[in-house]
Model the fold of this input.
Amino acid sequence: MFTHSQFPSHVCKLKQAIYGLKQAPRAWLYKFRSFLLAYGFTCSPSDTSMFVYLHGSTTMILLLYVDDIIFTCCSSAVLHNFIKFISHQFAMKDLRDLHYFFGVHVVRTSQCIFLA
Done:
């Protein structure tokens, strides 16, 4: 607990504090999910961590696990624009191509993706 030496009876009002609280993961997921739904994604009925974006001939799939996000798209230009847009809303680090996920080794070739 923090107590200011000059104002020991004052109470500080936090403008934003979600990390470190028991409800932080739920609050972050709600905010992220709301953002995706407003963008045009729909939540998969079979997997609540998977979101699908269908617009014309464009299909984008996003998989969220805790704070790891994997997305793929049929168009690299659309994917690049989405990454740029989402980076303005959330602090992110782009780790580029997927190599491992849940202990599964991912190898991408020009024709397909191997999971081992």
Summary: The chain has one domain: 24-115. The helical segments are 24-39, 76-89.
